[in-house]
Amino acid sequence: MHDLSIRHHCGLFGVFGHEDAVFLTHLGLYALQHRGQESAGIVSTDGERMARHASLGLVNEVFNKRNLETIRNPTAIGHVRYSTTGSCTDSNAQPLLFSFAGGQVAVAHNGNLINAALLRRKYEQVGHIYQTTSDTEVIIHLLAKPAHQELKYPLNHVLNHLQGAYSLLMLFPDRMVGVRDPLGFRPLCLGRLRNGAPVVSSETKAFDMIDAQYERDIEPGEIVTITKDGIATRNFGGPDDGRGAACIFEQVYFADPSSLVFGDNVHLARAAMGRALAREAAVEADLVVPIPTCAQCAATGYACESGIRYGRAFTTSHYAGRSFIMPTQTARDMAVKMKLTVIRESVAGQRLVVVEDSVVRGTTTRGKIGALRQAGAKEIHLRVASPPIRHPCFFGIDFPDQHELIAHERSVDQIRDYLGVDSLHYLSLEGMLSCVKMPPEKYCTACFSGEYPLSVDEPVEKFGMDRGQLRMFT
Question: Could you give the CA distance from residue 368 to residue 451 in angstroms, rounded to a whole number?
Answer without folding.
Answer: 32
